[in-house]
Write a structure and sequence with these properties.
2 domains, 21% helix, alpha+beta, five-stranded antiparallel β-sheet, single chain, globular
């Protein structure tokens, strides 16, 4: 009789472990499903870069919109004629935020600065006030991290051309 009770208790214990494992798998699956449905993936999506001289929406992240456009800069005195991509960051929230990201650039489909991500030269960290925007310009006063050269206009053969860019390590922090 004693052996029967031991076997019965072992079976009961194994049964409980079996059900707990399945219940845990179900909870994890439910959590993953909810995360996929409600997660903010807009800034993680790859965006196709197209040359445009009008503001184009790049990302919408937590009430902050990121736009870009192309513009031309002509310095006739020095013979420099360049096309740039500039950014506009628009805060539609009712609170101030700090926006930070690293600018990753691809020229002729090859990453120009992938090994330099995180370095100051390609990093931006700026405060954008509530219901306001921050915008780079096309002239010599461009904001570092909010503009990049897309091509040189003064050369007949335009071999180096921006083909893609991304804002990586993008973070929005409430002030």
């Amino acid at each position: 009789m004693h052996d029967f009770l031991n076997v019965s208790q072992k079976q009961s214990s194994n049964f409980k472990i079996f059900h707990m494992k399945h219940m845990l798998k179900g909870i994890i699956s439910l959590f993953v499903l909810i995360s996929l449905i409600t997660g903010k993936s807009s800034f993680a999506q790859e965006v196709e870069y197209k040359r445009s001289f009008n503001w184009e929406l790049l990302y919408e992240v937590e009430g902050v919109n990121f736009f870009y456009k192309n513009c031309e800069f002509h310095d006739d005195y020095n013979g420099i004629h360049t096309e740039y991509v500039i950014f506009r960051i628009e805060n539609t929230r009712d609170d101030n935020v700090v926006v930070s990201y690293d600018l990753q650039m691809y020229y002729n489909n090859e990453c120009f600065n992938c090994n330099s991500i995180g370095k100051k030269e390609y990093h931006l960290e700026k405060t954008v006030f509530a219901n306001d925007f921050l915008e780079s310009c096309c002239g010599a006063d461009r904001i570092k991290g909010m503009s990049m050269c897309s091509r040189f206009l003064q050369f007949e053969v335009k071999e180096t051309v921006l083909t893609k860019f991304e804002l990586v390590n993008l973070h929005i922090t409430k002030l």
